[in-house]
Amino acid sequence: KICLDLDIEVGTAIFLRRVAEMSLLALAAIPILSSCGVQTTSLTAVLTSISFALGLASQKALSNMAAGIMIMIFQPYKIGDNVELEHVSGFVYDIQLSETIINTYTNERVSLP
Predict the structure, then answer these.
(1) CA of residue 23 relative to chain centroid, distance
(2) Using N-to-C axis directions, what is the helix angle for 10-35 and 40-57, rounded to 10°?
(3) pTM of the prediction?
(4) Nearest to 100 by CA among 74, 50, 64
């Protein structure tokens, strides 16, 4: 409901909700485990190392996701807009987190990262 008041698109609202849920879960898990007697310092170090390794292994995918987030935030184009991106011209069919799907004038669907 807040997103409707702020004029945020549905896809952006869903993404923001998921990020908030995962962040709250991660923030709540560490103190809960600590209060149960689990040593969280080593757990935090392991999770940090795993996050760092995954980040290095998936740099291109993360770059595409960051671009998708920027498109959702700044909205240089919206679904249904007539666009010319890279070597493709047509209408924006869908904007996803990691790609934009264009419906070309010849009725082909092209996915651009």
Answers:
(1) 14
(2) 150
(3) 0.50
(4) 64
